[in-house]
Amino acid sequence: MNNKLSISYLLLFITPLIFSCREAVKDENENNVSASVLSLHVGDEKYLMINTEESVVTWKGSNLNGINTQTGYVYISKGELMIENRQLMGGAVEVDMNTIEDKNHGSDNKLVNHLKDADFFNVKKFPFSAISITRVTPVNGGNKKVTANLTIKGITHSVTFPIKIEVMDGTVKANAKLVIDRTKWDVRYKSAKFYDNLANQTMSDSIEFHIKIIAKNRIN
């Protein structure tokens, strides 16, 4: 695979993307607005296309006690960031769920096939996930707090997460960490919320995504 980098979903979604966190994470809001990739329009802002060869989402998941963890990758299919006065103002990312990989065994193995089936992400029916930024709040320096609409399995909720942005001439580097409660997106497999008597087979409801994005090339 290209650029198997450990990052700090988004993207996109992408994390990321079944993780070692032991507690379900609360989303600040819920919003059923579609999070498909934005069609960005005219103005004085710069719209930078995400370089899909250099960008990646790393996912991590675990059972409830955090002992058995799994890590892998999923890839961004397209996306754009909006930059104004060297500041992140918005953007959108689409993640191809068919590109899910396991860090140790690649894309063709029992684990990945299970992640693609209806127990998890039902990739045949929902081949893409997406995230669209709705608000960016400065924290300090290049550190921001992003609020965005995250869509997985056709379900959209609002999420808020930290992101670090580095803006250079013609290039933006972004690193983010996003942790979600998977059950809000109907990923219920071996969740203690929905299944009794799982004992040590119970999986954490938290999924963590580490998102690395490189965006380049002004769009006219």
From TrEMBL:
SUPFAM superfamilies: YceI-like. Residues 47-216 form the Lipid/polyisoprenoid-binding YceI-like domain. Pfam families: YceI. Transmembrane segments: none annotated. This is YceI family protein. It comes from Sphingobacterium olei.
